Amino acid sequence: MKKLSLANTPTRIEEIQLMDADLPAHLYIKRDDMTGVGFTGNKIRKLEYLFQKALDEGITDVITRGAVQSNHARATALAAARLGINCHLVLQGHRDSKDEANLFLDQLAGAHVHIIGREDGYPDQVMEDLKKDLEAKGAHAMIIPVGGSNGLGSMGYVDCFNEILEQEEEMNISFDTVVCVAGSAGMLAGLVYGNELAGGKKDIVGISVLDSKETVLEKTLPPIIDEMNELTGNHVANYNVTILDDYVGLGYAKSRPEEMEFIWDFVSQTGIILDPVYTGKAMYGIFSELLEQHWSEKENILFIHSGGAFGWTREQMEMLLRK
Ligand SMILES: *Cc1c(COP(=O)(O)O)cnc(C)c1O
């Protein structure tokens, strides 16, 4: 399957040491936060496939959606700018959201931003309506699903899984467990799929920042896996995956003081930036699982650092500094 080359890959893998924590396993980080500056994070691996399709089909306008501070929207806006494609973002949030962080970068990239509230209806419907409007004016528009998480986008994380297998050889190491954040779960789906194609030897763990374990397992993952089966001609039906939903905390994009405290400790001891919405919660989860001895059978754990540094809003920065 063809894809564009937009991301800096392979991304490096580093071992992490915290001065004040005696971890019962080796913890490694795959630096997908270093896929690029504007492109930082996991979305660009999915967009390499999705924008290839857009170019192949002569698409003039892409439409996608997310929360007002969506990393996916920002990466899509910048990739579209690079490729000379118009970008329309349907963002859920307050109409008076501050033009900061990702929302600022969306506009810097020239994206058309539509902020919608509950009264505007379902965001997927808003995207469909926008597509009709654009096509009535002669555009050739394509909708990219939330998070870029369909079968095609998730192929980017099958590639990432294969990249890990190559790095294991080079580094002479074997990761028994691969951990990532589960949001729209395209990253997780790709890693799960790659693992199954390679014989299913690793534990794949998704730490949810949004939905319950049941929702991820029953509603979110299966359709993405089905689409990957259709695209690749494989028949992956049963797969090994663990979802932890104990670290959603107060809910999507809402932070607790203990998470902020942890992020502060982690960043100030490693120089690796975590964000409050995704990687901060996941890393807090990993440390909790390790320190509470829930993962005592694990030896080499690899966390996929999925980016998010632009997700810090003024409000969250103030919360961290006040901790
Ligand atoms: C989108 C995102 C995730 C979640 O990835 P999904 O494929 O949507 O599950 C994790 N971390 C960061 C920083 C993200 O932007």
From TrEMBL:
Query: Which InterPro entries did the record assign?
Result: ACCD_DCysDesulf, D-Cys_desShydrase, TrpB-like_PALP, TrpB-like_PALP_sf
**Domain Tryptophan synthase beta chain-like PALP span(s) in chain numbering:** 5-307
Give the UniProt keywords, A-Z. Pyridoxal phosphate
Instruction: List cofactor names only.
Output: pyridoxal 5'-phosphate
Signal peptide positions (record): none
Residue ranges annotated as coiled coil are none
Keyword Endoplasmic reticulum recorded: no
Q: Active site: which residues?
A: S70
Phosphoprotein as a keyword of this entry, yes or no, is: no
Q: Which domain of life is it from?
A: Bacteria
Molecular functions (GO terms): D-cysteine desulfhydrase activity
GO BP: any one term: alpha-amino acid metabolic process
Record's PANTHER family?
1-AMINOCYCLOPROPANE-1-CARBOXYLATE DEAMINASE-RELATED (PTHR43780:SF2)
Protein family: Belongs to the ACC deaminase/D-cysteine desulfhydrase family.
Q: What's the name of the protein?
A: Putative D-cysteine desulfhydrase
Q: Which organism is it from?
A: Aedoeadaptatus nemausensis
